[in-house]
């Protein structure tokens, strides 16, 4: 993972200044491992700098995307685009219930090699998202199922 200072250097080379606002936004992006949306980054920024506009947050994230320092992550739910820092390549686990998107360390062989459809494609990145229930949500689901079974038993009496 790059430091804010390294990113500041990249911005300078592109003729962009690292304003305190940009610094804060970049710092949040680099350290937030929850893969936040623009809106979530904006809310965090407001805690420290209430005067920062949503547009500034959006534009700074765009700049980071252009620099290749953050990446968009797909979100199957209606949560919109979420952002990830592009340090180490990694995979994801997505909880379909609470929408937690967690980084996962998986030692996978290059899977494209096992697909004839991909034979002539150039693979730039291999990123897998596994969908399911996180431990807390699977526990909730179990409890709900138990409740339903009880209700059924009562109503069939
Ligand atoms: Zn969950
Ligand atoms: Zn990630």
Give a written overview of the molecule:
The structure is a single chain. By secondary structure, the protein is α+β, with helices and mostly antiparallel strands. It contains 5 helices and 5 strands. It folds into 2 domains: 87 residues, Arc Repressor Mutant, subunit A (Orthogonal Bundle), CATH 1.10.10; 70 residues, Dna Ligase, domain 1. Helices cover 43% and strands 13% of the residues. The strands form 2 sheets. The chain has a 3-stranded mixed sheet with strand order 4-3-5, with no helix packed on it. It has a two-stranded antiparallel sheet with strand order 1-2. α2 packs across α3 and α2 crosses α4. The model has no long low-confidence stretch (mean pLDDT 88). The site of one zinc ion has 8 residues, from α5. The site of one zinc ion has 5 residues, from loops.
């Amino acid at each position: 993972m790059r430091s804010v200072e390294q990113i500041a250097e990249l911005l300078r080379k592109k003729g962009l200044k690292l304003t305190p606002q940009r610094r804060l936004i970049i710092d949040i992006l680099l350290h937030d491992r929850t893969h936040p949306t623009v809106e979530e980054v904006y809310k965090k920024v407001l805690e420290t700098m209430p005067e920062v506009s949503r547009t500034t947050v959006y534009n700074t994230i765009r700049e980071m995307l252009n620099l290749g320092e953050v990446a968009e992550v797909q979100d199957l739910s209606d949560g919109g685009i979420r952002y990830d820092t592009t340090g180490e390549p990694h995979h994801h686990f997505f909880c379909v219930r609470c929408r937690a998107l967690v980084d996962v360390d998986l030692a996978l062989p290059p899977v494209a090699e096992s697909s004839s459809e991909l034979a002539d494609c150039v693979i730039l990145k291999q990123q897998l998202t596994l969908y399911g229930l996180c431990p807390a949500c699977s526990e909730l689901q179990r409890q709900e199922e138990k409740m339903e079974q009880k209700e059924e038993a009562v109503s069939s009496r």
